[in-house]
Amino acid sequence: MHESQENSSFFHVREEVPSIASPVLGNIGPLTIATSTVTTLLITFLFVYVAIKASRSKLIPSRLQAAFELFYEYVAEFIESIVGDKEKAATIVPYVGALMTYLLVANLLPMMPGISGFYITAANGLHVPLFRGATTDFNTTFGLALAVIVIMQIVGIREQGFFGYTSHFIQIKQVWKGFKTSLSEGAVSIIGFFVGLIEIISELAKILSLSLRLFGNMFAHEVLTVILLGTFSIAVPAIWMGMGVLVGVVQSIVFVALVTVYYSLVLKKEEEH
To answer: Which of 24, 33, 174, 242 has a 20 to 30 A CA-CA distance from 138?
Structure first.
């Protein structure tokens, strides 16, 4: 019986199925430090390093600078293909490009050799990976989605003015003009008023749709990876990890494409207004 257990352990890896909440490592005052927090801090340091390197760019680029410039061109072309306007794409690229870079690093970093091999004992005593994927934590994806929608409102107000932008949601002025014109126009404006209120709900729903889509896909991949490791540790998990790279890239592109559309619509409204 003992020999049978030893042979079976050769074919699978014992690892806890990840929970929705990231394992907590400890607390610093009121701040809770989880494994996803460590990953986010590592990504922050990487971004600071890249920002310093970018500030020292030269006319004759190094290989690293050339790689950054090539990536920028790909992102710019991708955004332009969505919005269909070069000038509008140039306005969107700095914000959306930074977001896409963050998501690519956040989704793929935990799969990198040398990163995924670090383990630590969490506060609950379990032996867990030190660098859990940042986007497998709903707090991260919700924070990103919330920041995106808040920034869209700020951009809308900046482009159209406070009353011009909020009039899309609270259409009191349109109702006044409608009834001033005729009773039938007033009735139509009432419908428009309630549609505007629904638009407020729609803006809030975007936060959940963006965050749940990204979190659900990345967390599901993490869970299935552990299940495969626990079932058969030869060849199959490696193939699935390769699929994980594809999932991470695709989810980054989907998230950024949706944000680009939201941003584009805000600018389009401003032009039509």
So the answer is: 242
